[in-house]
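pasting for ref
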Amino acid sequence: MPITDFLERNSREFGDDVCLVEVNPERKEARRVTWREYELIESSSSEYYRNEITWAVFDEKANRFANLLISRGIKKGDKVAILLMNCLEWLPIYFGILKTGALAVPLNFRYTAEEIKYCINKADVDILLFGPEFIGRIESISDDISRGRLLYFVGENCPSFAEDYATATSNCSSRKPNVQLTNKDDAAIYFSSGTTGFPKAILHNHESLEHSCKVEAAHHQQTKDDVFLCIPPLYHTGAKMHWFGSLYTGSKAVLLKGTAPEAILETTSKERCTIVWLLVPWAQDILTALDTKALNKDDYHFDQWRLMHIGAQPVPQSLIRRWLEYFPDHKYDTNYGLSESIGPGCVHLGMDNIHKVGAIGIPGYGWEVKIVDADFNELPQGQVGELAVKGPGVMTCYYNDYEATRAVLRGENNEWLLTGDVAKVDEDGFIWLVDRAKDVIISGGENIYPVEIENFLSAQPKVKDVAVIGLHDDRLGEIVAAIIETVPGYECSEDEINEFCMKLPRYKRPRKIIFDKVLRNATGKIEKPKLREIYGAVGLVAKQNQA
């Protein structure tokens, strides 16, 4: 069934129940509500901004936007991009797109203007919706991207080069559009990228999205009574597909803006959240706040909080041991996945397998896995090879990229996805990652592409050669390290490099600068495995001692 059916069922059966709550602890004043269906709910015990909608309002808003799109000529197979920070409008817009038979194309809010333009062109986007945080970026490319495309602005004070979304939808019908959908229809394009840094457009159909709903609900035994705290950005498959468990069960979810430990604990307490998904840095920040007595667990109401789970990056075993000292009654799960496998859950630890923390786990609900060699032959237990996954959530293809698709899909019907991760299976059937075959750096749950940063640093006049690698970090998983070989006869300081890197987004800036020779092999390729060995935690100390 198409995933939109779940929303329409919830509207019929649970129409008056709250489905989404938006909380912004940093915003003390409520904004003016411009859509009559919205109701501002003030909590007598809270000072922060809070807004909520019901399942009926959610579905009505999706229908209004769908009917607007149809009136503007959008039809099955067209593409509509979303460039918004998390807000109550995000998901109704997403489902409004799906109700037309068009494809939703979420965009990373950290993209530069040029990256936005690239992705819009790559996915053949027809319409772009964007929020106030992106006015400058969109305005700088508006002459290029507005040719043959409509631009809608979601927020107050609409810029002159776009249409106002609230005004455009206000007079549209709230009835379901007459569009027939099946689970084999294309539904969404998500962007990922390899070590080159050029995003690939990942195409998924409704069956993929539907399966992710069932996976999330099954893995975490989710029911109508659960309340899910969603902190990560909704453009990411991880956040969206975890929320799909709430969609599937008709339960409430809270969209929290901000990652401060106090905000997470306060919102979990006040909103009575039962399921909280964290990234490693956020969990570590909470533990540090509790360790230092900056926060006191007894100041909050946590009797209802039953599950904390983590994904998007390797999870230190020590972190979970520390977490359970503070929250001994919590269930815990680790989720592994790729955007190509519709995000989290193709492999997961399982809530009853805390003794295996460190492994990524066992095959997820409806998924199969195997470890294969370079010829796609399955390897026996204990041998190291590439992890391959199979299930209803495997992508259809990389959109308009046959060669890239052929490189990762295997089997008679392209049903197996090569993950690019090297792994092995232990004697109990649990999968352990050995290393990543790709050089992508995962820092705080975000993919960072070394070649992009290398190309940027190469423009610094004093840089002769540069290699970017990831180094282990207890909090972020990895940090960006740049090994820089300077032009002979020139001296260069860390301050000069750091100043040069101010043009990069903060999360892409190198945290460690190392001046040394860049190792390359006979064919000119950077020998990154050797560099990681040399400059890893142990290797770096030895190198410094030698110096």
